[in-house]
What we know:
Blueprint: H1 2-19, H2 35-47, H3 65-70, H4 72-79, H5 99-110
Helix pairs in contact: 2-5
Amino acid sequence: MKKISVLLLVVAAVTVFTYCSSSKKAVKVIPKTTYEANVAPIIAATCAPCHFPDKGGRKKPLDSYKSVTAQLDEVLRRIQLNPTDRGFMPDRKPNRMADSNIAVIKKWQADGLLER
């Protein structure tokens, strides 16, 4: 009799723990891409000094959120050109910007051009 009681208790415990779980599923949160955290470092590394007036650049400035967002379509078009194409950027560099950096800028645009 004691063995049957213990066995029933174990079966009941297993049944309870099998169905006892959180009804909420884990949601993977994908952080939004922002200008300050993700895009500004890329622009500073690849577009300076030419597009930064405080560093002696004389081309259209890309030194602020406002200036980058105002010219974003043109920036994206030019950084995706081949080095032999007219208008290719970054100028005076033999290779295109890394595809991963271009992807970050495109994701930033898709995420809504968040500043922070």
